[in-house]
Amino acid sequence: MPERKSRKDAVRNREAVLAAADALFARCERPEDVTMADVAAAAGVGKGTLFRAFGDRAGLLRALYEARLEPIREAAEAGPPPLGPGTPPRQRVSALLDAILCFKLDNRRLALALEESGNGSPYQAEHYEWWHSLLRAVLEQVPGLTDSGFTAHALLAATRADLVEHLAGQERVPRETARAQLANFATRILAAGPARGLSAED
């Protein structure tokens, strides 16, 4: 019984921490202002509990991000069109990019905090590797496209959290405008044929 109670307490504490961190990042102006001490106080747990559960601030950010991302991940891996596997590749690429953009817009501070967490290159983050792998696999199904790996990187660059924050925060681009701009960008990229290399005479 004590062991079961301990596990329940751990689960409850984890949920409280994630909820507190979520609320703090949603309200903050600068993601770096949210500290582990702030999260612990808001969740009503000790800092030791926080560090044991998540390791460090980057670990907490990753856990919160992954929890938020999970419904989209499930829809993309096994859901119905337009995100799911049964969708024509060009349509699915556009839908996946739109889902990423909407997720970043809905979680602006959290996404920015994760990219700025000092956790190394954002290209090495688990969620980035997953998105890139998925997009590359879908792009490989597009007729005439021979550089799916690079194209996936280029398309994902248009959804980086710092760019999304700049467009939404500094330039005040409306949500629907940003979605339309990204869709048009993806359509142009996928409609373009493979670039011709320069010949030796050029």
TrEMBL record:
Gene3D superfamilies noted in UniProt: Tetracycline Repressor, domain 2
Keywords tagged on the record: DNA-binding
Protein origin, superkingdom: Bacteria
Any Pfam family: TetR_N
Domain HTH tetR-type residue range list: 11-72
Matching InterPro entries: Homeodomain-like_sf (IPR009057), HTH-type_TetR-like_transc_reg (IPR050109), HTH_TetR (IPR001647), Tet_transcr_reg_TetR-rel_C_sf (IPR036271)
DNA-binding region: 35-54
Protein name (Swiss-Prot/TrEMBL): AcrR family transcriptional regulator
Organism classification: Bacteria, Bacillati, Actinomycetota, Actinomycetes, Kitasatosporales
